[in-house]
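Thread: "does anyone have the structure for this chain?"

Original post by V.I.:
We have the sequence but no experimental structure in hand. Need at least a predicted one for the grant figures.
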Amino acid sequence: MNPASKAGSRRFVAFDRDGTLIVEKNYLSDPDQVELLPGASEAVALLRNAGFGLIVVTNQSGVGRGYFTLEQVHAVHRRLRELLGDFDGIYICPHAPAEECDCRKPKPGLLRQAARELRFTASDCVVIGDKDVDVGLAHNAGAKGVLVTTGYGAGHLAAGRVRPDFVAADLLTAAQWAIAQESHAPTVE
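Reply from O.Q.:
Generated one for you, tokens below.
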């Protein structure tokens, strides 16, 4: 089944950024420090070629904490797009945790915003990330949550902080799982 054929709705994968697509660096704000994780290019290409819509959903509390600007975040994302190609959207929570906004993962605000803007159903999305908040985002939106053991993933898994729908050693394995889920989905006539 083609992800675009399901009831007129295209399937989407929502990626966390740091520790999932790129190497985790504390409060990354310099585009020259963006370093892809092994397999990230292949995973993104595999999903794109399978017809999935691709978004990034990222907490960037460094903005709210005054460590860097939103323009610096955008510069990092321009570099990410240079390395991986375009995404259907990149959604950012710039708030500090104390602000208690609706967009900070694990709250589903950013994923719901993306679903409205890009016209997909949040519950049909697969969220891939390396933290409990990524899996929490998925579950809070009714989506599937995949934990990659890159970045903080292995530590969160070992600590029992997360109950993902699937655990993947890397992003390529997570992408393959997302595609396999689509092939098992019921056909809508």
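V.I.: this helps a lot. Strands lie at 12-15, 53-59, 89-93, 126-129, 144-148, 166-168.
O.Q.: and The chain has seven helices and six strands.
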